[in-house]
Amino acid sequence: MIADKTNLSDLLYSLARDHGDKPALVQRPKSVTYAELPLQVSQLARQMAAEGVQAGDHVGIAHRDSLNVVKAMMAAWMLDAVAVPVDFRLRGDDRARLVADFDLAVLFEDRPMPGQDYASIQWTPEFEEDCARQPSTPLPTQGGNPALISLSSGTTGRPLGVVISHRTMMMRMLSYSMECAYPTGAKFLNAFPLSFSASRNHTLAHLMRGGTIHFHPPTFGASELAERINAEGMTFVFAVPATVSALLEIAGEREGPLFPAVEMIYCGGSGISAQDMIAAHEKLSPNVIHCYSSTLSGTVSVLSGENVRARAQTSGKILPTVRLEVVDPKGDPLPVGETGALRVRSPGLADGFYNARDREDGDRIRDGWGYTGDIGHIDEAGFLTIEGRTTDMIIRGGLNVFPAEVEAVVENLDGVSEAVAVGFPDKAMGEEIAVFVVPRAGNLAEADVFAQCQLALPPGKRPSRVEIVESLPRNTNGKILRRDLKARLAGPEG
Q1: Do 411 and 298 fall into the same domain?
Q2: Least CB-packed of 25, 220, 433, 441 within 10 Å?
Q3: Which of these three, 365, 389, 413, is where a domain ends?
Q4: Cβ atoms within 10 Å of 343's Cβ, excluding its own
């Protein structure tokens, strides 16, 4: 059997040939063309080698400048090292923990960390000068080691390290073109850090399609983002549901789409309400799509086109290259329409985990299947509906309650922007149900929410507590931190 020698850095040379002086990466005031990119990456790779980086090393990359993150990943690949993108917002002690947990040989950083006790290379002007003195001739690229250890968002605890090979990454990028009607040569405004797997995937996929990626500061307001999209003629935007909701507030009741020149708004990262999905299609851009994906599985389903209205409550049609099953706790497939745990096989399925315990819940790989940790059902037409995480399911008096059931009912109430249901300990019932509600406008009372649940939910699934809040806690990728909401309930009432 021939060993797989796929290496994503090889793409740089064909892209330079095909796109030449076209800008590839833009982060004000810097810009790198397709022709310049392989030269600068080669210089960086040689400097990395001079600093001691070798094939197979795990190379952490924590940098505020996303343009430099792209170059550092590709330079690591040229050396057949493994890139480990790290959220630049992490403090020194959190970085040190990641260095230990994922055996990072070195962490590239743009600033020193207090109490730093791990191997670090500071990306200083002097370091850049050293890189510029290196030859820019191509390196003899090897292959065989993984491309990435992708760190999960850690919404339920310490992050997992998901191992992704070069070939798997290539298949994920190609799937955007083949299955999502991905635009060619787009101007992509990316407002999310590259430690977020979706942001990274879209960046690399747009490079493959000859696009120009404009990196926007990740600490942004929706109005600033909207202004730049229109002022600079961006044609592709990736957004998490929370960003879509904020953009809808800006759009208001205007006639016509807020972004008339945008060819695609790709929404992902977490679930979006049917209300917001339909509104985005009408008020933001007629080509808004929503995907269900995970770091483990890659893209599984896409909601687009006429299905946005007809199937807005779903997570879209399962892609033809994906085999998805809904199974019971024993791993046996369930009939169409029944709810259970999701497992997937696809060309984009991750290759494994690094330093992860075998888990009964959450993301895991067993017998060639990737268990995403999500709960859902598939209808007869092949549309997937996500109902929550296995770890989020509430067991009230022996009855399984999926948070999405409660959330959908509450979000149908006029004046509700978002709702999140969580369980909290109860001596009599094992767990009770609380729902946190963000009002859209006006005076929303707890009694209104209780009345809505009394009307639309059976007794065993009605919340016993309603909390009206101004906002919900989220991580840097826009995912709701349910553990933080549960912590708020820890008290005399919980």
Answers
A1: no
A2: 441
A3: 389
A4: 23
pLDDT (mean) for 64-92: 95
CA distances from 21 to 25, 37, 132, 186, 232 (A): 11, 10, 19, 16, 19
Q: Could you tell me the two tokens for 324?
A: 């998805």
**Maximum pairwise Cα distance, the chain:** 71
Residues 259-311: tens digit of each pLDDT: 999 999 999 888 888 889 999 999 999 999 999 998 899 999 999 999 999 99
For residue 150, tell me if it sits in a domain. no
Contacts of 98 (CB under 8 A, 6+ apart): 60, 84, 86, 90, 104, 151, 159
Task: Say how many C-beta atoms besides its own lie within 10 A of residue 145's C-beta.
Answer: 18
CATH code, 108: 3.40.50.980
Q: Phi and psi dihedrals of 62, rounded to 5? A: -125, 95
CATH number at residue 464: 3.30.300.30
Residue 400 has pLDDT above 70, yes or no: yes
DSSP label at residue 460: G
For residue 434, count CB atoms less than 10 angstroms from its CB and return exposed for 0-12, middle for 13-18, buried for 19 or more: buried
CA separation for the pair 148, 85 (Å, rounded): 8
Measure the CA–CA gap between 6 and 302, rounded to whole angstroms: 28
What is the predicted pLDDT for the residue at 490? 74
Residues near 318 by beta carbon (within 8 Å), at least 6 away in sequence = 300, 301, 324, 378, 382, 383, 384
Closest C-alpha among 258, 333, 263, 271 to residue 301: 271
Q: Which of 343, 320, 345 is nearest to 175 (CA)?
A: 320
- Structural domain that includes position 54: 8-145
Domain tally, the chain: 3
Alpha carbons 42 and 139: distance in angstroms, whole number: 7
